[in-house]
Amino acid sequence: MKQKSQWILLLATSMVSFMSTIDASIVNIAVPQLSHDLHVPMNEAEWVVSVYLVLICMLLIFFGKLSDQIGRIKLFQIGTLIFVVGSLGCGLSMNLPLMLGARVVQAIGASMTMATNFGIITQIFPRNRHGVALGVNSSFVQVGNIMGPGLGGLILSILSWHFIFFINVPIGLIAFVFGYKIFPKEPAIHEKLQIDFPGYLAYVLAIVSFFVAIYWGQEVGFAKLKILGLFCLSAIFIAIFIFHEIRVSNPLLNLQIFKNVGFSIGVISTMLVFAVGYFNNMIMPYYLQETLKYSSAVAGLILMAVPLLNIFSAPVGGMIGDRIGADKVSLIALVIFLISELIFMFITPNWGIVWLVIGLMLFGLANGAFQNNPMIMGNAGKQFQGIAGSIAALARNLGMSIGLSLSTSLLYFGISQKAGRHITTYPEHNPNWFVYGMHFSYWFAFALIGIALVLLITLVKHQKKAV
Known about the structure:
Elements: H1 3-22, H2 31-37, H3 42-45, H4 47-70, H5 72-92, H6 96-124, H7 130-158, H8 162-166, H9 168-182, H10 197-220, H11 225-247, H12 261-291, H13 296-303, H14 305-324, H15 326-346, H16 353-369, H17 372-378, H18 385-419, H19 431-466
Helix pairs in contact: 1-6, 1-7, 1-9, 4-5, 4-6, 4-10, 4-18, 5-6, 5-9, 6-18, 7-14, 7-17, 10-11, 10-18, 12-13, 12-17, 12-18, 12-19, 14-15, 14-16, 15-16, 15-19, 17-18, 18-19
């Protein structure tokens, strides 16, 4: 395939990656309007957000396995069209059942594209350009993850919430046409499809138990016996899933892939980094608008420091990774992450805005330079590229979910500790309580990055010994 066509296809797959990722967070800012227009309580309107994320996590492994049997490009193209149809349905919905139904369709399409895009990129590009190609795609994914609330707010300031979904339709159709014209033709596969449905059922039950525990725990507290019981139930189903997959002849997930230390560490560190990213998503808008009293427009401009640096550093990090190794570039990125987290751990309103912008810029630089996709895909064998891409996407989505839960729970726990009573909203008359809760949260974010750093150092040492 010509180099020009490779980059056009990379742009097409990255556009779909951006849309499917941003739709996990862009709807958050529209929940109040959805609640009002659909005539449902706020907590029911939030199902529009949660059903999308949960379904993607449930379906990624299934479509990763399916793509290895019927072809990644075919599944990606079908998924793009399904995502477009779901987006159109969401925009046209006039009540909650229709909205949730359309959101299910959208999630099915998104999971099909997420499970296949990395495998397509590694299939199209030669190995010596995997880093930069996956880096470009990563910048779209990570910017989509970060920009959701800001872009949603911009759309809502001009148009109605319907256009948060309508905007996906022309972009998705353009990406599909590009793919149809330029994607290489895959050979037809006539083998009988083989899916391990008992294993998949155990996996689905584990995911459902986990998410119910997270969402319910945020309301009633994670120390409750019923919440701990759900987490235990999720762990039991995971154990059943692993036990079954080891023994079945054609497993849903070939666990041999995790024997590669680089792959396993890449998956875990990706989950940790995406979890930490959600700390900024949840905490910084409150700090800027409620504590520092900036307008939403000014706060949005300040927060743009993260995606702007991310866009620059992701492809550059990928190019450097092609030369010295994705793990070494990621190691440097994690050190930069720690510096930014240190600033967030100690910053106060007296420091001035410059220090906050520096912290956000360092965070954006590190977020882009962290080579999660090349680490995961580069350490997966050629026969595992389809399922490896779905595992990478699953790690991202689980990380976002865990980060959402951790950041809000730790923030309000810290505020409550300072106040001496239970608080679940911004303390209007005591902004210093919020600053204390923010610092308390970022200590944990710092620790998560520290764990990822230790894992990467272990990996680099392991690879030196192997050489």
